[in-house]
Amino acid sequence: MSKIEYSVQVRLVSDLAASKEFYEKVLGCEVNDFWAVRDEFALGFKLLQAVEPGDVQPNKKGKDQAAAWDTYAYVETHNDLDQLYEELKAKGAQFIQEPVLTEADWGAWKEFSITDPDNYSIGFGSGKKD
Length: 130
Known about the structure:
single chain; 2,3-Dihydroxybiphenyl 1,2-Dioxygenase, domain 1; four-stranded mixed beta sheet; VOC_core; VOC family protein; Glyas_Fos-R_dOase_dom; Glyas_Bleomycin-R_OHBP_Dase
């Protein structure tokens, strides 16, 4: 079986220039003509200019979901998540969910979410205490 090296999400955006600026300046991605990637494709997007604004359609919330996600990324520890939160906050990210810690029988999950210029939600989480 062939190994897949990485994947990216394709995003139709209403303003390619504004999206490229967000993904570079706020999210910390390396950006070129339409690629936005961070941490060697651990987080990757292909940004495409939409034909019509109505073509941009972020996900809606699922049942029992606190926030809708279009992308969900994981970090190693809660400390790493806290550092990422502070990094994104300092860069002007718009948060749709502040960090929340949920305790369960299996452990503790911590997460937060931000939004991009087209209201695509990007969630970040960790299931490992430091």
